[in-house]
Amino acid sequence: MAPESGLNTATNAESQTDLQLVNKVRRGDRAAFDLLVIKYQSRVAAIISRYIYDNQDVMDLTQEAFVKAFKAIDRFRGDSAFYTWLYRIAVNTAKNHLESRARRPQGSADPSDAENFDDGGRLRDNASPDRMLQREQLQKALQMAIAALPEELRSAFLLREYDGLSYDDIARVLECPIGTVRSRIFRARDAVDRHLGPMLDNT
Q1: Axis crossing angle, helix 167-174 with helix 178-201, rounded to the nearest 10
Q2: d(CA 77, CA 35)
């Protein structure tokens, strides 16, 4: 219980610090917003890169997401963590970009994130050439499995498995009941497991 308590304390402290910075921004302190950008820039870019492959587009859209956040800062009520609110802006920015080009999201998570998945332990193995090839094949299969998910399942799955958000935070990001979140994540995991099952059985 102690480690979990410590984690909750750290999370609460981080949220409190973010809220203090937000309040400074509202009072006209641009430097405070710069600190938020520095703190979350890489995470926002990682979010957007799950939808957009072009590095320049990712950089541009990351900047656009922060511009939107700055303009909308007065609408941040503090009901959820600042990062949860920022995450929603980043996802919407990426989706709007794709819709403007009449394209669907191009993918999901970076292959290097595969070790964060529940089956990650089975992806990590001896670094022999055969095992390295199997690992690459599994990572590609994982990408394809996630990319094949319907949008609402993929979003919930990524928020949970790759960003580690709580069900409550995911419900806020996706603006749906927590029961819906649990159902979507269950269905997404089942679909991914069925896609990867045959390959994992052969490893």
Answers
A1: 110
A2: 19
